[in-house]
Design a protein that fits this description.
The chain is of the alpha+beta class and 382 residues long. It contains 14 helices and ten strands. The chain has two domains: 145 residues, 2-Layer Sandwich (Phosphorylase Kinase, domain 1); 231 residues, Aminoglycoside 3'-phosphotransferase, Chain: A, domain 2 (Alpha-Beta Complex), CATH 3.90.1200. Helix 7 packs antiparallel against helix 8. It is globular.
Amino acid sequence: MLRTITAARDLALGLSPWLPNEHRYGLESLTTGELGEALGADVSGARLLDHSLEYDSRGTTDRARVRLDWNAQGVAAGLPASLFAKGTASHLASRGIVSAFGCGTYETRFFQQIQPDVADLTITPYVARSGYGGRYVNAFEDIALRGNVTFYNADDDCPKEHAEAVIDLLAKLHGRFWRSPRFATDLSWLETYSRRPGYPFMAQAFKLSEKKFMAQDRDLPESVRRLTRHYVRNQPALVKVWEAMPPTLCHGDNHLGNTFTNPDGSAGIYDWQVFHKMNGLRDFAYFLMHSVPTDLRRAEEKNLLERYLHGLTENGAGAEVPTLAEAWDSYRLLTIDGWIIIVFTLAAGGMQPDDRMEVTAVRAVNTLVDLDVEQAISAALR
């Protein structure tokens, strides 16, 4: 009940047209002085003369490339000519969602407390602050300046090499935070997904989404229809099953479009708005079902799972890493958590381009059928 009241309060704050200290947040709150200090404080004589915003989009958050105009010393020192930034959504509904689910607050805290431990896996922040009501601003490196970086859309066909690189990245992330003692100290605020801000709303949204999705004119296997209904009707019991698994830090939305390939071939990841404490196989399942073309997944999923488990062992999980058979069972079960996000997105509409989500949905349905996820869910509820 308390979490529901808190989520309702945060939603109301997000929908408010004005809050005290609002001027400290959003893209327009960035100043030339603070950006110059954040990037050039250690470069003698460097001074940022001006900055300008080139808005990229205004969706769940406002996003923009930030152009930087350095003096001669800054240019000579090779200080970046641009940054990327995201902040308070201009759209009322989007701001309400971001506020209710704590997205801006969580991403800000990621940059402030966790990013230094995974700097090799993600992006470099320069400004990170958040307030109430979905008001926040984060400015970070323009990854394109790294050189020959490959970016992806969510519906692109993930090549095998990048799939392997992402699995290596996940193994490093999850291994470093496997049953981390920090979950009881400085990261005690980090919750499982079902205890994150706004989850009571999301649980209800899944129920409404399932009805709307099933009413659409879709050619879905009957087994997928059954397992979707079964999940929605048994959410609390299933959540208890996977939240009893050994926890680590999960990204939470690690589809292809939130990853990139570095010039050296390694993978990187960004957009940390929904990270949470969960078993790492949830991220593994989410990436494969959302992002890997069906034929490649069928051919490589067991190899990728073995690669992931080996990486977990090498990066801190040690003897607690499950066997391949145990991990396979968990992988099958946890795909449902990624599927319900697709159902929600397609039912809600407007969160992602429809044609992009349809590609993802086909991959996901094939995964659910291939892995007989209906049977996995039934077995977990016995």
